[in-house]
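Project outcomes to date are best conveyed with an example. Our students and postdoctoral researchers have been running inverse folding experiments weekly, and each run begins with a structure described purely in C-alpha cells. The record below, which covers 659 residues, was selected by the lab manager from last quarter's runs and is presented without edits.
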C-alpha cells in the first residue's frame, strides 16, 4: 500500500523533483565516469605511480561524495517544505509517523533507483568524453575504453551511501516535527534582518579582504619565483580569500535590500518595493547558504583555471628544461654507486628504441672558488661545497645555435646564465673576475636560455680562460629521430640500482644519468591530464549542486509566493508585469552567489598570467585569458539553463496559477 502511494507521489511530484532529479543524475554520471577512470585498466598505461594516483583520486571522490550527501540533505529539506501540508494532512488523517517515514524513504529510494539508472546511462557517454579529453591532453590516439565492473560497483555503493546520509536528517525532521508546523509552517513570517548597517560595513571590509588576499598571493608568488623566498603567507592568503568570500556574501545578503530601499527612485519604480521586500526575507534567512555556495563556486573557478594553466605551460616548460631529446651528465650525482652504465653502452641501448641523428658534447669547469656565489644567497653556511661553474663560449654557442639563439661574443668579459629567475635579482655589475692574471668584466645576466646544466647559474668565459680550470662534469646531448618511442622502458634500461642509508634504514632505488625529454613529456602529460580531469570533476559537481540548491530554495517558497502574487493581481497588476516581477526576484536571488565566482575569473587569470611571465612564459598570456573566459562562459551557460528552468516552473505555479 505504502509502496504504491510512494510511487504515485513520485509521479505526481515529478515537476517539483525535476531539477533535483536531473542534478542527482548528473552527479551519478560524473561519479560513474571518474570511478571508471580510477579502476579502469587503461589508466595503468598512463602513469607509473598508478597506485598513488588511484589512492589520491579515490580519496577525492569519497570526500566529494560526503559533500554531495551534505548538500543533497540540504536540498531535500527544501523539497520537504514543498510537502509540509501534505505530510501534515497524512498525520491528521491518522497515519503514523512510522508510516510517513517509510513512505518518505520509499520515495527517496524510487528517486535513487531512477537517478542511478539514468546516471549510469549518462555516465557511459561522459566516461568516453573524459577519456577523449585525457588522451588528447596526453597526445594519444583516442579509442573507446572498456568499462570497469569495480567502477560500477563503487559508484553504486557511493550513491546508496549518499542517499542514506542525505535522507537521515530529513527522517529525523519528520519524526520530530509537529502537525501544526507541517500544516502552517509555510505561513511563518521570516525574521527581519538586524543591524543591516553593520552588515554593510562587514561587506565592505570583506571586499577589502578579498582584494588584499589576491594582492598578497600575487606578491608571495613573485617572492617565491623571483627571490626564492619561502611561501609563508601563500596559504594564509588562500584562507583569507575563502573567509572574505563567505563574509562578503553574508553581509551583502543582509544589507543590500536595506540600502536599496533607502533610495526613493528605486522604491518608486513599478513593483521594485515588492521585489525588494520579497528578497529581504529570502536573502537574510539564506545568507549563510549563499556565502558557502559562493565559496564552492569561487574555488571551483580557481581550481579549473590553475589546472588548465599548468597544462598550457607544460610544453614551454618542457622545452626550457629539456632543450635536446636526451641529455647525459657524467657527474650528475656526487656519490658513485659503481653500477653506472658506460656511455658507449648507453648509446647502444638508445639505438634499440630510437635512432640517434646527432650528438654533441660540452664540458662544465670549476675554479674551485665561490667568487660568484658570494654575490648570491648560496654561500656561507650550508653551501660550503658549492663552487662556481663555468662553460666556454664556444661550447655555449655550439649548443645554442641549433636552437635558434644568436651566438654571443666575449672580449675579456663574462656572462652569467641563470637557470632560476631569482638569480636575476643578484648583481655582478661592479665585480671583476680575475683568473690567471687576466681581468674579466661583467657583460650581463640572462635567463632567456634553456637549461643545459643543473646549477642555479653558471658563467660563460672565453675559451682561453677555462682551459686552465678543472673539469667539473662532462655532458653529451642527443637529437633522436622525430617519432614516438617507448621512453618509459628506455629510461628503465638506462637506470641502475643505488643503495643508500637513511635513519638507520637501507634503501635501494633506481637512478639514471640521463634526462629523456620524451619520458618527461609522457609523465607530465599523465600528471596534467589527471589534474585537469580531477579539477573538471570537482568543478562540475560543485556547479551543479550550487545551481540545484538555488533552484530548489526558490521553488520551496512557491506556496507563500503564490499568495503574495495573488495580492498583486487583486491590486490590478497585469500577468505580464507579475511575470517580470517574478523574473527580477528569482534572477537577483540566483545571481547573488554566482556573480562573484564568475568575476573571480579575472583576478585568477591575472595572477596566473603573472606567474607565467615570472617563469619566462610571456607568450602564453593570451591562452591563459582565453581559458579563463572559456570557463566563465561554461559557468554562465549552466547558470542560464538552471535559472530558465526554475523561472519557468515558478512562473507556471505562481503567475499562471488560476485564482
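After processing, the design step wrote out the following sequence:
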Amino acid at each position: 500500500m505504502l509502496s504504491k502511494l510512494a510511487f504515485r507521489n513520485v509521479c505526481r511530484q515529478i515537476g517539483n523533483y525535476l531539477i533535483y532529479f536531473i542534478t542527482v543524475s548528473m552527479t551519478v554520471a560524473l561519479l560513474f565516469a571518474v570511478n571508471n577512470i580510477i579502476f579502469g585498466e587503461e589508466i595503468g598505461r598512463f602513469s607509473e605511480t598508478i597506485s598513488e594516483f588511484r589512492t589520491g583520486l579515490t580519496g577525492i571522490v569519497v570526500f566529494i561524495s560526503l559533500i554531495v550527501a551534505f548538500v543533497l540533505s540540504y536540498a531535500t529539506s527544501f523539497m520537504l517544505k514543498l510537502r509540509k501540508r501534505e505530510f501534515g494532512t497524512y498525520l491528521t488523517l491518522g497515519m503514523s509517523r512510522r508510516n510517513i517515514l517509510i513512505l518518505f524513504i520509499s520515495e527517496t529510494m524510487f528517486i535513487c533507483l531512477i537517478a542511478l539508472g539514468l546516471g549510469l546511462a549518462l555516465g557511459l557517454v561522459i566516461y568516453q568524453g573524459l577519456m577523449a579529453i585525457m588522451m588528447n591532453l596526453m597526445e594519444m590516439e583516442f579509442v573507446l575504453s572498456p568499462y570497469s565492473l569495480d567502477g560500477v560497483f563503487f559508484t553504486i555503493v557511493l550513491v546508496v551511501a549518499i542517499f542514506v546520509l542525505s535522507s537521515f536528517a530529513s527522517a529525523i525532521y519528520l519524526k520530530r516535527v509537529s502537525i501544526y508546523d507541517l500544516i502552517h509552517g509555510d505561513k511563518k513570517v521570516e525574521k527581519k534582518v538586524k543591524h543591516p548597517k553593520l552588515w554593510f560595513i562587514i561587506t565592505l571590509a570583506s571586499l577589502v579582504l578579498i582584494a588584499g588576499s589576491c594582492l598578497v598571493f600575487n606578491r608571495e608568488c613573485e617572492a617565491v619565483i623571483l627571490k626564492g623566498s619561502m611561501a609563508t603567507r601563500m596559504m594564509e592568503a588562500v584562507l583569507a580569500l575563502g573567509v572574505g568570500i563567505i563574509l562578503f556574501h553574508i553581509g551583502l545578503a543582509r544589507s543590500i535590500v536595506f540600502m536599496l530601499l533607502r533610495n526613493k527612485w528605486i522604491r518608486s519604480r513599478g513593483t521594485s518595493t515588492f521585489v525588494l521586500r520579497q528578497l529581504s526575507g529570502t536573502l537574510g534567512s539564506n545568507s549563510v547558504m549563499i556565502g558557502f555556495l559562493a565559496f564552492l563556486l569561487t574555488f571551483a573557478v580557481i581550481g579549473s583555471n590553475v589546472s588548465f594553466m599548468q597544462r598550457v605551460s607544460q610544453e614551454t616548460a618542457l622545452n626550457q628544461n629539456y632543450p635536446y631529446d636526451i641529455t647525459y651528465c657524467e657527474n650528475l650525482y656526487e656519490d658513485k654507486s659503481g653500477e653506472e652504465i658506460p656511455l658507449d653502452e648507453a648509446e647502444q641501448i638508445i639505438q634499440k628504441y630510437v635512432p640517434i641523428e646527432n650528438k654533441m658534447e660540452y664540458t662544465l669547469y670549476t675554479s674551485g672558488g665561490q667568487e660568484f656565489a658570494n654575490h648570491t644567497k648560496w654561500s656561507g653556511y650550508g653551501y660550503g661545497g658549492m663552487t662556481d661553474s663555468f662553460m666556454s663560449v664556444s661550447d655555449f654557442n655550439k649548443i645554442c645555435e641549433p636552437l635558434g639563439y644568436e651566438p654571443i661574443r666575449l672580449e675579456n668579459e663574462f656572462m652569467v646564465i641563470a637557470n632560476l629567475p631569482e638569480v636575476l635579482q643578484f648583481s655582478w655589475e661592479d665585480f671583476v673576475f680575475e683568473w690567471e692574471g687576466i681581468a674579466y668584466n661583467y657583460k650581463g645576466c640572462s635567463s632567456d636560455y634553456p637549461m643545459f646544466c643543473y646549477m642555479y647559474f653558471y658563467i660563460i668565459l672565453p675559451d682561453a680562460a677555462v682551459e686552465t680550470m678543472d673539469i667539473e662534469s662532462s655532458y653529451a646531448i642527443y637529437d633522436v629521430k622525430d617519432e614516438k618511442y617507448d621512453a618509459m622502458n628506455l629510461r628503465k634500461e638506462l637506470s641502475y640500482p643505488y643503495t643508500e642509508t637513511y635513519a638507520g634504514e637501507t634503501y635501494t632505488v633506481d637512478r639514471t644519468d640521463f634526462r629523456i625529454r620524451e619520458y618527461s613529456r609522457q609523465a607530465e602529460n599523465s600528471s596534467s591530464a589527471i589534474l585537469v580531469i580531477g579539477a573538471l570533476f570537482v568543478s562540475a559537481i560543485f556547479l551543479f549542486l550550487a545551481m540545484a540548491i538555488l533552484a530548489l530554495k526558490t521553488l520551496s517558497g512557491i506556496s507563500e509566493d503564490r499568495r503574495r502574487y495573488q495580492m498583486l493581481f487583486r491590486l490590478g497588476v497585469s500577468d505580464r508585469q507579475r511575470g517580470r516581477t517574478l523574473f527580477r526576484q528569482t534572477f537577483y536571488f540566483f545571481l547573488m552567489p554566482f556573480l562573484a565566482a564568475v568575476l573571480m575569473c579575472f583576478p585568477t587569470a591575472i595572477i596566473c598570467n603573472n606567474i607565467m611571465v615570472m617563469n619566462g612564459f610571456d607568450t602564453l598570456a593570451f591562452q591563459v585569458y582565453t581559458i579563463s573566459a572559456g570557463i566563465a562562459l561554461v559557468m554562465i551557460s549552466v547558470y542560464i539553463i538552471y535559472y530558465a528552468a526554475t523561472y519557468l516552473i515558478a512562473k507556471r505555479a505562481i503567475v499562471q496559477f488560476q485564482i
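The longest helix spans residues 97-137. The first strand starts at residue 326 and ends at 329. The training component of this project remains on track.
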